[in-house]
Amino acid sequence: MTKGTSSFGKRHTKSHCICKRCGRRSFHVAKGECAACGYPRAASRRFNWSKKAIRRRNTGTGRMRHMKVIDKRFKNGHFKQGLRIDPVQAAKAYNTRRALSKQVPTI
Question: 38, exposed or middle or buried, with CB in 10 Å at 0-12, 13-18, 19+?
């Protein structure tokens, strides 16, 4: 029996298909588990012995549709940290400032 060309012609079944989570052709159909991301486990598959693999799929390697916006808002001061403003006090402060600005200075 040959180990080469004639044997390769018989290989036509697929053990892996597309994964729902990572989109790679790594989902093992019989096992029901992705070899790349570990789907359907809740935690994504990653190991510290492969730093480069972690870098490849880390934050910043994709489109970052949401994080781009968050970074921009944070940079422009849209997030007030450590402040809890009471709506009633805010309205009072606004009204007093408005009243003070309307006063005409007497000479």
Answer: middle
Return the amino acid letter for 28: H
Name beta bridge partners: 33: 28
| Reported pTM | 0.61
Tokens representing residue 95 in the block = 């009204």
pLDDT tens digit sequence for 34-71: 999 999 999 999 999 999 999 999 999 999 999 999 98
Backbone φ/ψ region at 16: left (φ over 0), alpha (ψ -120 to 50), beta:
beta
What three-state secondary structure class fits 45? Answer: coil
CB-based contacts of 19, cutoff 8 Å, min separation 6: 25, 26, 27, 34, 36, 37, 39
pLDDT in tens, 22-40: 999 999 999 999 999 999 9
- For 42-61, letters b (16+ CB in 10 Å) and e give eeebeeeeeeeeeeeeeeee
- Phi, psi dihedrals of residue 76, rounded to the nearest 5°: -90, 5
